[in-house]
Amino acid sequence: MVNTNTRKAAIIGCGFVGSASAFALMQSGLFSELVLLDSDRDKAEGEALDISHGIPFARPVEIHAGDYDDIADAEMIIVTAGASQKPGETRLDLVKKNVAIFGRIIPEIAKRGFGGILLVVANPVDVLTYTAAKLSGLPENRVFGSGTVLDTARLKYILGKHLGVDSRSVHAFILGEHGDSEIVAWSSANVSGVPLGDFCEMRGHHDHETSMRNIAESVKNSAYEIIEKKKATYYGIAMSVRRICEAVILDQKSILPVSHIQHGAFGIEGLSLSMPAIVGKDGIESDVPISLNTEEADALKKSADALKAVIDEL
To answer: Cα separation of 257 and 276, whole Å?
Structure first.
């Protein structure tokens, strides 16, 4: 296994998400070298050049296009490569297409003795995280997906606006699939330790059921709304990538709802979905137990079953 350079990261896939992530990481100061890979080498070189021209306004970092040999010693490889869903195409069609793409990418990483962290961002992230874990041969703690980190940020943002408080003071999670079957863990949500229901009443909000339903729908439909208006989403996920990289590179031991393979929590086994985990320099350090009420636990299990059905189809 190749020794890693803790100040080096690679991004595979230079579409909207990959290039926005590279831009966010350039500004972060976390890395001294960023390598961009894309099936279109010119695209990778163009993005590297464009982002590099802003370095005088940030901190020194070398950004360049490369190939698989150039990234074997990276501390983190971030995979954003994947096809986008075309009109009339089913979700399963897209899954099959992107699993095939991962079937070409992940073995190239594995055969070079990569020993760092593999972060999956391409969608459907849960199925592709599972695929990457199985194809890479890396320890499970070193392969995980961005999962519902962005969904959770959207929830905190919307709740913060609803309650008129700093969204960073809102503590709540979206769990399960990064997709239509995701669930809000309302029963454990709080604002700086104050149970969410109590805080809502303090701020003059009393129709909890309606508000919870509307907010959950708003979070779930956020991506659809953005795609309808501007054809793609990329800034929010780029900031999520930066946040996850920060937790790893600075060994922050942050609790984040990343997608990773489950082993028994709430009866879920052998598939990847988002649950809170401590994330640090070794990847996932441990799962964090979370209390769910019966309704939430049932919804989480249904989310897992929906994902398992997709994996079984493959």
So the answer is: 4
Q: Which of 113, 32, 47, 31 is nearest to 80 (CA)?
A: 47
Which residues of the chain fall below pLDDT 50?
A: none
Given 93, 111, 145, which residue is the final one in a domain? Answer: 145
- Please tell me which residue in 53, 64, 162, 178 is annotated as part of the active site: 178
Q: Which residue has the tokens 């953005």?
A: 226
**Residue 85, Cβ density class (10 Å: 0-12 exposed, 13-18 middle, ≥19 buried):** middle
Beta strand 277-280 with 254-256 is antiparallel
Question: What confidence tens digit (pLDDT) does each residue in 251-305 have?
Answer: 999 999 999 999 999 999 999 999 999 999 999 999 999 999 999 999 999 999 9
- Expressed as residue numbers, the domain containing 79 is 5-145
Domain end marker among 125, 145, 165:
145
217 and 134, same domain (yes or no): no
pLDDT tens-digit series, residues 59-77: 999 999 999 999 999 999 9
User: What are 174's two structure tokens?
Assistant: 């979206």
178 catalytic? Reply is yes
How many alpha carbons lie under 13 Å from residue 309 in its C-beta half-sphere? 10
Q: What is the CATH number of the domain that holds 167?
A: 3.90.110.10
CA-closest candidate to residue 6, choices 282, 286, 216: 282
Alpha helices in the chain (DSSP H): 16-28, 41-52, 91-110, 125-136, 149-163, 196-202, 208-230, 235-249, 294-313
Number of H helices, E strands in the chain: 9, 16
Instruction: Determine how many CB atoms are found less than 10 A away from the CB of residue 208.
Output: 13
One domain for residues 92 and 158: no
Strands 33-37 and 62-65, sheet pairing: parallel
Among candidate residues 156, 276, 293, 274, the one with its CA nearest the CA of residue 219: 156
Domain with residue 104: its CATH number is 3.40.50.720
